[in-house]
Design brief:
Blueprint (H helix, E strand, L loop, with lengths): L3 E6 L4 H15 L3 E9 L7 H18 L3 E8 L8 H15 L3 E5 L5 H13 L11 E5 L20 E4 L4 H10 L13 H15 L4 E9 L2
Parallel strand pairs: 1-2, 1-4, 2-3, 4-5
Antiparallel strand pairs: 5-7, 6-7
Helix pairs in contact: 1-2, 1-5, 2-5, 3-4, 5-6
């Protein structure tokens, strides 16, 4: 049975870093994947031109991964928390209503304030009432750098309880990550291609295969 999958990203590139291989795998299997990008490099901290660059990079990455549809809310980066809570909850909730996904992947609440705010809004918008009742699986993905910079045991630790085998999709994931030329640093940067490859190797070998992506399942129904 084909599924509708919604991947919620605080910024362009989070979806690819955290779930790019899984997105590619879902699309190869014929499922419909929608990516919602909540925030981006917009004024007052960035130029509008910076944002347009990342959107172009994102759309190239989405095409490589087989994303069927993408949406951008255009909230300035690091300022999602300045929006009234009910407004952010409502915007994410509206997309959940329209897409009616069976699977939702969202960011883990980590070092980046935008990731934490988006996570909190998803927890509200994806409650098992109204449109949220269609969600069969809700899980959080990790993002290189921010997720691993949380203070151990003081803040939540990312511990995956679901690992997706992306061995057959790893080259597509790396290709999609490479589309983000403005965002991906050279090695030993925390989001470098080498770091992405290393994390996928680690998560994969934790579960007995070559490359993997780790998720923490929040809610699952069978």
């Amino acid at each position: 049975m084909k599924k509708r999958i919604l991947v919620i990203a605080p910024h362009p590139d989070d979806e690819t870093l955290g779930a790019g291989g899984t997105i590619a795998k879902f699309s190869e299997q014929g499922h419909q994947v929608t990516v919602l990008v909540v925030s981006g490099h917009l004024p007052p901290l960035y130029r509008r031109e910076d944002y347009e660059i990342t959107v172009k990079e994102a759309k190239r990455a989405f095409a490589m991964l087989g994303v069927a549809e993408s949406r951008f809310l255009e909230i300035p980066a690091t300022m999602i928390g300045d929006q009234p809570v009910h407004v952010v909850n409502g915007k994410i909730g509206d997309v959940i209503k329209e897409v009616a996904p069976q699977i939702v992947l969202c960011p883990f609440p980590d070092r980046h304030i935008d990731h934490r705010v988006v996570f909190e809004s998803v927890m509200v918008a994806a409650r098992p009432v109204a449109a949220g009742r269609s969600i069969e699986l809700l899980a959080a993905y990790e993002a290189l750098s921010e997720t691993h910079w949380n203070a151990p045991h003081i803040e939540p630790n990312f511990v995956p309880n679901w690992v997706v085998d992306i061995t057959g999709q790893m080259s597509r994931k790396l290709g999609a990550v490479s589309c983000y030329e403005s965002q991906i640093p050279a090695f030993p940067g925390a989001r470098s291609i080498e770091a992405v490859n290393a994390l996928a190797t680690f998560r994969g070998t934790q579960a007995g295969f070559a490359f993997g992506e780790g998720f923490h399942v929040i809610r699952m129904i069978g």
